[in-house]
UniProtKB/TrEMBL annotation:
EC number assigned by the record: 2.4.1.-
Transmembrane regions: none
GO MF entries: glycosyltransferase activity
Record-annotated Glycosyltransferase 2-like domain positions: 410-491, 770-876
Top enzyme category: transferase
One of the Pfam families matching this protein, by short name: Glycos_transf_2
Gene3D superfamilies tied to this protein: Spore Coat Polysaccharide Biosynthesis Protein SpsA, Chain A, Tetratricopeptide repeat domain
Organism encoding this protein: Dermatophilus congolensis
Name of protein: SPBc2 prophage-derived glycosyltransferase SunS
Primary gene name: sunS
């Protein structure tokens, strides 16, 4: 009679090309004999060439997975792990054998102390040498880094936790040598690095360090030692980083004396915190767990010398594991309490804390938690209410004795009947009181404020904003004061205001204030962080732009305030009054640079540019304090000087701040304008100045739209810079001025890490292969392959992976010179794309579908790829446009930017449906480098009615497969959104809603969460379910308030609600609208929406502006001419 086991254990093995069925048979027999009944299933990932033979073997409890080989053992092992359903799996090669005691293994793995560990470190013997690899793994916790062949217990990955398996329980012995790898078996990544080191003649320390890391990932420990040893010579960051990684690797391999020697160098070095962390890891490996715990008691969150900071809970979780393993209950209690109070682990923790607290009074536990001043007291009290007795007593103590801090919103108002209720309604749900200090309104501002639920006081106006604010603050008398103007609203993050009730007022909180204003014919926005949430004791100083005076620490919170007080109608009332006050303040303090700066901005906004420049000139820039507003002062001063024909002065000014503001797209945008203006004034210098102007606009585009730069104007890092770059480049073409090839891309690359773009040689011919997956595509494939001729001579091979065609697809591909592989289809697009990539040995790949055509300039593309390599770009985005038939673009001229060119040594595809390109470590790309359509573009002919219908049906079936597979939360969410899109395309909105609601019930931290909400709101709007759309939009605005697609949906909601003026205002401020999946709306579609809103408002000026925008989007010069004339008349 067999004993029923509670824990399930599988074995996985990868069969590489060249390994025989006899070897597999011998391996399977060994596993069965050694494990007896302790093993559930043997998973064999077969990447060889005898599929029919191996799939007909008929082994019991053996599952054969059909795979492919791309010299990446880590990726193959990960694919095999994804097929398992067990609690634990042992990873083996078929030439490896086991010894030890399988019952001991199960006993260790079933130990409750190891309930949260992800890996077990197993001794592996190769040629009489012993190594330690994480060959026992929980499949559901396996990291998604397919480039790692052998996982080790590294201190650089605190999120992974390990068990040490003793040799008496398990040892793996390899019957053949593993390293060094023959040249034909090394990974793409290692091959690329070795090529780079040959080019640098071995003198590039960064490359040597990266080679050491890659060798470590492959499990070639001895070779990694030697590379780290080479880099560790010296005192620069590379040397210290190499010592850290070397010491860590030695510790993982139980070479503790050598590791101790390196740690003695690191501990007095420049990064003692990380050295302490590594020393603690060394103590654990030495069996000194109590000493390791003592080291971690006062350790802050460490950061490797050349790495990113650890997660804030890394040390706390490590302390907790050690406390559990050593049985030190007090340390376990303090660690769990720390995680609990920080809000990191609340749900389910109450019962454990009560048990550790023991027989002491439960009220004392509540008092300890209160003394820690947690921001999560309500959630903590709720958790104790859900816990067994006496949890309710702890919860009662917290609720009865918690310090509940009062929160009041404070508004200074005068004649703000237009907006006062809107402001109050936006903040009232989150605060205890809204106080409005009316400074002498002649309209019904006070009455409207009271009707909205505010407390109104009347105070005299003394031309001093600080005095008014301070009087209002005295009257409010709260522990926290939220300062908001009447023409502002809380646009996002209001819930964080509610949390202030549990937060001790010991610091000042900054929020993001977004102001809208008109820039030419476009409404754009400016954002800046401002201190708006103040402890009750803080007061203001400054007559006009009052500033809070304090020496408290600052904290940023995710709250967005939107301000429309810079609209023309409001400015016409405010500016003269503020000018008068500013001049009075300057008379009292003539040397205050901030007052001069504010007066200059005021005069500039009024259009009195010479007077503004005069104020800027009076500022002594040599004595300017290092304040955030200094950035926008310099930028706006240069802008103003250029506007009054003082461009040389502007250029001189900007030249003084080249290094200081190189990170600012505003700075480079204005510099581009200055150079363009100089070239216009002095045509004889145009050949010299216009290329420099183009370079400045390209630099602005490289930087993009920063979110934390004081006074940044949205658009200067995107569409405004792109528009001006286009003007400069057209001027160069008209004048016959040569620009470097890379000047023709309006997207440009990130800052190069090696070399300058201008000095780079284009990549050699054959550096780019095309890869395709096909099935029964005889009707379309020929034109796709013929279009690839536009890539020559850069093109190397066309690699076609056929997934089971029954027509002449393969013959057509071979007739056009393509390399064809006869593969298989398993409902997984990513696997097929990766198999196609494995056919190529080129450094860059272009992914095409069989119903697409590519149009390229190979000379420019070769240069762009060289620039991308120097910048360490992984993927390049290119324009893909849908067509209903070859050459016929869809209505609206839509397109999207797709990452179709990538480096296979750094990226691969993930997700079965709607395959997504990711880094080999599983990360998603947050940055994108876009190539201009003049360099390369794609047209997709798969959008005809019949093909679209087929695609929808296929997507519906494949998303079921994706949902059933094991994947992370983001992938599950993506599969649900994919399913909803397919259901919507099939005319089934009800089930589409259900899929989207299931998606948004998952993790809100992913991009797909935003995408799900966008699709849900879109469906509600299109089905005229306006109330539901409004509710969902409120949620979306809570975490993506300034996102362009959020604003786009809000405009459509306003139109549906009949609020046409507000809808028009929003659409006018939009230019480049992109959804969460990266799909942009065409500018024509946005302009048409603006025109529709303008016509509904019956605003002649707005209609003329919309028509002008539409004419530019359509490149309709006649419409542009007519709209311009209408604007002049208006």
């Amino acid at each position: 009679m067999t004993t029923k086991r509670s824990l399930r254990l599988d074995v996985i093995a990868v069969v590489q090309p060249g390994e025989t069925i006899d070897q597999v048979n011998s391996f399977v027999k060994h596993i069965r004999d050694w494990f007896a009944e302790q093993c559930d299933t043997i998973y064999v990932y077969y990447a060889g060439e005898e599929w029919k033979a191996i799939s007909s073997q008929g082994w019991q409890n053996v599952q054969i997975i059909r795979g492919f080989w791309d010299n990446d053992l880590g990726r193959a092992r990960l694919d095999a792990l994804n097929a398992t359903t067990s609690d634990w799996a042992i990873i083996l090669d078929i030439n490896e054998r086991l010894s030890g005691d399988p019952k001991k293994i199960l006993k260790i793995l079933e130990n409750p102390l190891y309930g949260s560990e992800d890996y077990a470190s197993v001794p592996l013997k190769v040629n009489k040498k012993k190594y330690y690899y994480g060959r026992l793994v929980r499949p559901q916790n396996a990291h998604a880094d397919g480039s790692i062949w052998e996982t080790i217990d590294t201190g650089f990955a605190p999120e992974r936790s390990f068990i040490d398996i003793p040799e008496s329980a398990l040892q793996v012995t390899s019957t053949s040598s593993k390293f060094p790898l023959p040249e034909e078996k090394i990974s793409r990544r290692l091959g690329r690095l070795k090529k780079d080191t040959d080019l640098s003649k071995g003198n590039d320390r960064q490359i040597s360090y990266e080679i050491a890391q890659e060798l470590q990932k492959l499990g070639d420990i001895d070779a990694a030692y030697q590379e780290y040893k080479k880099v560790a010579i010296g005192e620069d960051n590379w040397a210290w980083a190499a010592r850290e990684a070397w010491a860590d690797l030695l510790t993982s391999q139980k070479r503790l004396e050598d590791a101790a020697s390196l740690l003695e160098q690191l501990e007095p070095g420049p990064n003692p915190e990380f050295a302490t962390w590594l020393r603690a890891k060394w103590c654990i490996a030495s069996g000194k767990t109590s000493q390791a715990l003592d080291l971690m008691q006062h350790l802050e969150c460490p950061t490797p010398t050349l790495g990113t900071p650890f997660p804030e809970d890394a040390v706390l979780r490590a302390r907790l594991r050690l406390a559990c393993h050593t049985g030190r209950k007090h340390d376990e209690l303090t660690s769990r309490l720390a995680l609990f109070i920080a809000g990191i682990e609340i749900h389910g923790a109450g019962k454990k804390l009560l048990k550790l607290w023991g027989k002491r009074r439960p009220e004392e536990l509540g008092e300890v938690i209160l003394e820690a001043r947690s921001n999560h007291l309500e959630a903590i009290a709720d958790e104790f209410d859900r816990s067994p007795y006496p949890g309710n007593l702890v919860a009662r103590t917290i609720r009865e004795h918690r310090q509940r801090y009062s929160v009041a919103a404070v508004i200074i108002a005068r004649d703000e009947a237009r907006c006062i209720q809107r402001c109050i309604n936006s903040i009232k749900p989150f605060v205890d009181e809204v106080l409005v200090a009316d400074t002498g309104s002649e309209d019904n501002t006070a009455e409207l404020a009271e009707a909205a639920g505010a407390r109104v006081i009347h105070i005299p106006w003394t031309d001093n904003f600080s005095e008014a604010h301070n009087t209002a603050l005295d009257a409010a008398g709260a522990d926290w004061h939220v300062i908001i103007d009447a023409d502002e609203v809380i646009a996002a993050g209001g819930r964080e205001l509610y949390d202030l009730h549990d937060l001790s007022p010991e610091f000042v909180l900054t929020v993001n204030v977004v102001s809208s204003f008109r820039l030419g014919e476009t409404i754009t926005t400016q954002s800046e962080p401002q201190s708006r949430i103040l402890p009750g004791t803080v007061r203001y100083r400054g007559i006009i732009h009052a500033t809070p005076q304090h020496d408290l620490p600052l904290r940023q919170v995710r709250i967005t305030i939107e301000h429309d007080g810079y609209e023309p109608e409001q400015l016409a009332k405010k500016l003269p009054r503020r000018e008068k006050m500013l001049r009075a303040a300057i008379a009292a303090e003539p040397d205050d640079p901030y007052l001069r700066y504010q007066l200059g901005r005021n005069l500039e906004t009024q259009g009195r540019l010479p007077e503004a420049a005069e104020q800027y000139d009076k500022i002594d820039r040599k004595t300017l304090p290092p304040e955030p507003w200094q950035h926008i002062l310099i930028v706006q001063c240069a802008h103003t000087l250029t506007s009054i024909n003082r461009s040389l002065d502007a250029l001189t000014l900007l030249g003084e701040y080249t290094d200081e503001f190189d990170h600012s797209s505003d700075y480079h945008f204005v510099a581009g304008n200055v150079l363009l203006d100089l070239a216009t004034q002095q045509p004889e210098l145009a050949a010299e100045l216009l290329p420099q102007s183009a370079a400045e606009f390209r630099r602005a585009l490289e930087i993009g739209e920063p979110t934390d730069l004081f006074g940044h104007v949205n658009g200067r890092g995107s569409y405004l810079a792109a528009c001006n770059l286009e003007i400069v480049e057209q001027g160069c073409r008209d004048l016959g001025i040569a620009l470097p090839d890379h000047a023709y891309t309006p997207s440009t690359t990130k800052t190069l890490q090696r070399g300058d773009a201008e000095d780079l040689a284009p990549l050699p011919n054959g550096s780019l292969d095309v890869v395709m997956i096909v099935k029964n595509e005889e009707a379309h494939l020929a034109q796709t392959l013929e279009s690839c001729e536009s890539l020559r001579p850069l093109l190397g091979e066309i690699c076609v992976y056929d997934t089971g065609s029954t027509d002449t697809t393969r013959d057509i591909a071979r007739a056009h010179g393509a390399k064809v592989a006869e593969g298989f289809w398993d409902n997984n697009y990513s696997r097929a794309r990766n198999a196609a990539a494995a056919m190529s040995s080129a450094p860059w790949l272009l992914v095409l579908d069989a119903d697409e055509r590519v149009f390229a300039n190979p000379t420019r593309l070769a240069h762009e790829l060289a620039v991308a390599e120097a910048a360490n770009d992984v993927a390049l985005y290119i324009e893909a446009a849908p067509t209903s038939a070859p050459g016929e673009r869809m209505q609206g001229n839509e397109y999207w930017m797709s990452p179709r060119i990538y480096r296979p040594d750094l990226a691969h595809y993930a997700r079965p449906v709607h395959a997504e390109l990711r880094g080999l470590d599983g990360h998603r790309f947050n940055e994108s480098t876009e190539l201009a359509p003049e360099t390369i573009r794609i047209e997709n002919d798969g959008f005809g009615a019949s093909r679209t219908k087929n695609s929808v049906q296929r997507a519906l079936s494949l998303t079921k497969v994706a949902k059933a597979s094991r994947s992370d939360t983001a992938d599950q969410m993506a599969a649900l959104v994919d399913q909803a899109r397919a259901q919507w395309g099939a005319g089934d909105p009800d089930n589409a809603r259900k899929s989207l609601h299931a998606a948004i019930a998952l993790d809100p931290s992913t991009t797909y969460y935003r995408w799900a909400y966008q699709w849900l709101i879109r469906i509600e709007l299109e089905t005229e379910n306006i109330d539901a759309a409004a509710r969902e939009l409120d949620v979306l605005k809570g975490f993506a308030p300034t996102d362009s697609y959020t604003r786009w949906l809000e405009a459509h909601l306003k139109l549906a609600q009949g609020q046409t003026s507000e809808a028009l205002h929003i659409v006018q401020s939009l230019d480049h609208v992109v959804d969460a999946a990266g799909l942009p709306l065409s500018r024509e579609v946005v302009a048409e929406a603006q025109l529709a809103a303008a016509r509904q408002t019956d605003d002649a000026l707005a209609i003329a502006r919309a028509l002008l925008r539409l004419g530019k989007a359509r490149n309709d010069q006649e419409l542009v001419h007519k709209a311009s004339a209408a604007l002049r008349n208006a």
